[in-house]
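The protein record filed below.
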Amino acid sequence: MQEKDKSTGKAKKTQKKSWFQGLKSEFNKIAWTDKATLAKQTVVVSVVTIILAVMISIMDSAILEGINLIIR
């Protein structure tokens, strides 16, 4: 019984090692962007988020005023 447990333990260790090697090889395939591109994309996402937040806020206020006019 112990021999079976030992062989299973070795198989699990080998399996984990193989999995981490596969993970490492996949990470090496990733094409990471450079800092300049990342900075530009971050600025664009931030600006678009702010613009959308302002638009939603304006629409929310307009709808609220419209509902208040109807209720009065």
About this structure: The helical segments are 2-29, 35-71.
